[in-house]
Write a structure and sequence with these properties.
CATH class of the largest domain: Mainly Alpha
Number of strands: 9
CATH superfamily of the largest domain: Butyryl-CoA Dehydrogenase, subunit A, domain 3
Distance between the termini: 49 Å
CATH architecture of the largest domain: Up-down Bundle
Number of domains: 3
Structural class: alpha+beta
Strand content: 5-15%
Radius of gyration: 21 Å
Largest sheet: 7 strands, mixed
CATH topology of the largest domain: Butyryl-CoA Dehydrogenase, subunit A, domain 3
Shape: globular
């Protein structure tokens, strides 16, 4: 295959050439959309801590939603995991907050329904979500629980005739302040199994409150949700979810998506630093001519290339249907750690300008901290991989 003429500067080993022509066109479409339409909105809204609602209409017109789901969205055949991963990377390369908004809707929420719902539920909700006429959210994390959510979920569900009564609280729920459908996970008090419910925003007792004062992901409207006797019909319970093992299947897939996001943030920071180094003059020459600056750039590119290669193989394992929890956990732990190094080195190249929002790298630097923590911390993902390779569980 011929390499893309407009491929990323950071694609040193030409990974994009692994995509077939039709998928490469979709990737370029996403790149142009993010660069031309989305980027001009980013810094102003990041500084203000606001989500530009016009983004929803812009994404609707882009036709990018629903790509992974065969039969839904504009691209009816299912696309490869390699393309969806590179899409997440491409969006995060411009802004991790916008990528998270899209990933929560198109990934966590839609995939929960696609994989955990029955055919009637998929047909009821996914077409309008793929068209972005309705927006989704995913509510699992709780105020007093993080990595222990599997055994310590406090949000409860109680069967009452043909309905369920939900009580509890959720925290850090992206899109929840304006989402139409919120996939809420709760523990059935009768069998103690985790079940999934699609809560609609106008259901009585459902109250989202925006979390203020964040230093990262400032465009994302994360919310703390309270659920007080929320009555949800049995028809809104995801019929294919019968315990946390089914939920883990969803998290396994989406954790890999976060690793792609981390790669995108690293690339965005690296490309900003590379451009700056070629323009910034010190001692009568561009700082790109200084050996120590080149050292930081080369180390950054090495991290990016190693991470990209790992994620390409992860996507192949996903497409083959043979990837496991430990595969996505290793990718999340490794790539986010390498991302952290890249954004720090990139900010260093900017010197004092590296803390000014207008140069972009400060935003990547701050947002990297959120990506490093969610979808399983490095420590939790390390224990998952450690158990896989030793056969010994080191969990508490």
């Amino acid at each position: 295959m011929e390499p893309l003429k407009d491929k990323l500067t950071a694609d040193f080993y030409d990974f994009e050439a692994l995509l077939p022509d039709d998928e490469r066109k979709l990737l370029v479409q996403a790149r142009e959309f993010m660069t031309n339409d989305v980027k001009p909105l980013v810094n102003e809204n990041w500084e203000a801590g606001t989500f530009p609602k016009e983004l929803i209409g812009m994404f609707r017109e882009s036709g990018l939603a629903g790509l992974p789901y065969e039969g839904y969205g504009e691209h009816k055949p299912a696309v490869s995991h390699l393309l969806t991963g590179m899409m997440a990377m491409e969006m995060s390369r411009i802004d991790a907050s916008v990528a998270t908004f899209f990933g929560v809707h198109n990934g966590l929420a839609m995939y929960s329904i696609y994989s955990g719902g029955d055919q009637e539920q998929r047909d009821r909700w996914l077409p309008e979500m793929a068209a972005m006429d309705k927006i989704g959210a995913f509510a699992m994390t709780e105020p007093l629980g993080g990595s222990d959510v599997a055994g310590g979920m406090r949000t409860t569900a109680k069967r009452d005739g043909d309905s369920w009564i939900l009580n509890g609280a959720k925290k850090w729920i992206g899109n929840a302040t304006f989402a139409d459908y919120i996939v809420v996970w709760a523990r059935d008090v009768d069998d103690n199994h985790v079940k999934g419910f699609v809560v609609e925003k106008d259901m009585p007792g459902f109250v989202p409150e925006k979390i203020e004062g964040k230093i990262a992901f400032r465009i994302v409207e994360n919310a703390e949700i309270t659920l007080t006797d929320v009555r949800v019909p049995e028809a809104n319970r995801l019929q294919g979810i019968n315990g946390f093992r089914d939920v883990a299947e969803i998290l396994r897939a989406t954790r890999g998506g976060v690793a792609w996001q981390a790669l995108g943030v690293a690339i965005g920071a690296y490309e900003a630093a590379l451009a700056y180094a070629q323009e910034r003059q010190q001692f009568g020459r561009p700082i790109a001519r200084f050996q120590l600056v080149q050292d930081l750039l080369v180390k950054s590119l090495g991290n990016i290339t190693a991470s990209w290669g790992m994620l390409v193989q992860l996507a192949r394992l996903q497409d083959a249907g043979i990837f496991k929890d430990e595969h996505s956990s290793l990718a999340k732990a490794f790539v986010t750690s390498r991302m952290r190094e890249v954004v720090a080195w990139s900010r260093e190249i900017f010197g004092g300008n590296g803390i000014v929002l207008g140069y972009d790298v400060a935003r990547f630097f701050a947002d990297a901290e959120a990506i490093y923590s969610f979808e399983g911390t490095r420590e939790m993902n390390t224990l998952i991989v450690g158990k896989a390779i030793t056969g010994q569980s080191a969990f508490v």
